[in-house]
Design brief:
- With about 350 residues, this protein is an alpha/beta fold.
- The protein is built from twelve helices and 15 strands.
- The protein has one domain: Rossmann fold.
- Helix 2 packs parallel to helix 9 and helix 8 crosses helix 12.
- The protein is globular.
Length: about 350
């Protein structure tokens, strides 16, 4: 799905929450309400809005749960027909009081600042996960995870596959493996359908690898080449795939059967910077020597099970340049794709 470049946050959020025919069909093939746990983060609000736009039956509820420290986020979701519930997902009593739902997306977690708050990281990524997995045993669950669970891979091998060994690089990655193990353990015991949604580098215009690189190029800041390759996916595509992934949740049978890498193709960081530079009329500045490993994914399973037409990288680069030059709001949450010691 492509359209003109968004120039305001209202246009951007409308674009990010627009379902395509495959998303509408996927949700129509399911029955019952959709519950999004941890809906107050970067992706959650537009995923919730997309679910509401995709479900024609008004009797089917879309419910967004978060601590919602930003009251404007609550009002915005409610204005688009999404029900909201404030809850601390690490509190067993609060989770027990949440509404039942047959379709659940688990989007809660902590990354940024995890190095300085290891207890909070494990609380959000593991303790809260155990509470939710038990509370919604029997429901169809898509559990958001991350490519960090694999650790860096030799670029020559083409990216991590779902059956590869998980090798944590730092405390954040270890806690994310813990989250996956908790969900799969409870899914196995209760024979509940599950999909581990291992997302790599989703890009909104307010944040993301492309925005990070574009910001550096436009401001003459060196772009690090030490991590020389990344996967890139437009967040609107990732949102649609998250909802479609509910149809892929299955009872765990071993061999990473419930995991799926979700991202776009492997792209050279230099290529992204040079594309941005060509669009912006600015010569990129580079720093560092390329390494032969990176946090990258093989996406054969995604294309086999959830084929989709991606937003072209060239268009994403154009949009990022226009957004930054127009003074569009940035979240100031760098992806830290250059980090090579697992410290986020």
């Amino acid at each position: 799905m492509t359209t003109g470049a968004p120039t305001t946050e209202l246009e951007l959020d409308a674009l990010l929450s627009a379902p395509d025919d495959d998303t509408i069909a996927a949700l129509a093939s399911l029955s019952g309400d959709v519950l999004i746990l941890g809906a107050g983060g970067k992706m959650g609000p537009t995923v919730a809005r997309m679910a509401r736009r995709a479900i024609a039956d008004p009797s089917r509820r879309v419910i967004a749960v978060s601590r919602f420290s930003d009251t404007s986020a609550v009002a915005a979701l409610q204005a688009h027909g999404v029900e909201t519930v404030r809850a601390d997902l690490a509190d067993p009593a609060a989770v027990a009081a949440l509404p039942d739902a047959p379709n659940v997306l688990w989007m809660a977690g902590q990354k940024f600042g995890s190095t300085g708050d290891p207890v909070g990281t494990w609380t959000q990524n593991v303790v809260a996960s155990a509470i939710a997995a038990q509370r919604y045993a029997g429901s169809r669950i898509v559990c958001f995870s991350t490519g960090n669970v694999y650790g860096r891979q030799a670029v020559a091998l083409g990216g991590a596959r779902e059956h590869d060994a998980l090798v944590p690089d730092g405390e954040y990655a270890a806690s994310c493996i813990g989250r996956e193990r908790v969900f799969e353990s409870i899914a196995r015991r209760t024979q509940s359908p599950l999909l581990l949604y291992r997302l790599f580098y989703a890009c909104d215009l307010r944040y993301g690898v492309v925005t990070d690189i574009a910001h550096n190029v436009l401001h003459g800041t060196p772009v690090s080449l030490e991590t020389a390759f990344v996967n890139v996916i437009w967040q609107g595509d990732a949102n649609r795939l998250a909802l479609r992934a509910l149809t892929q949740a299955a009872r765990p049978t071993g061999d990473a059967s419930v995991a799926m890498n979700v991202t776009g193709p492997v792209v050279a960081v230099r290529d992204i910077a040079e594309r941005v530079g060509s669009i912006a009329g600015a010569a990129p500045v580079f720093a560092g020597a390329p390494s032969d490993d990176a946090l990258i994914a093989n996406i054969d399973r995604l294309h086999e099970r959830l084929p989709y037409t991606a937003l072209p990288l060239e268009m994403l680069c154009e949009w990022a340049v226009q957004w930054i030059r127009a003074g569009g709001r940035l979240l100031n949450k760098p992806t830290k794709f250059e980090v090579r010691d697992g410290r986020y």
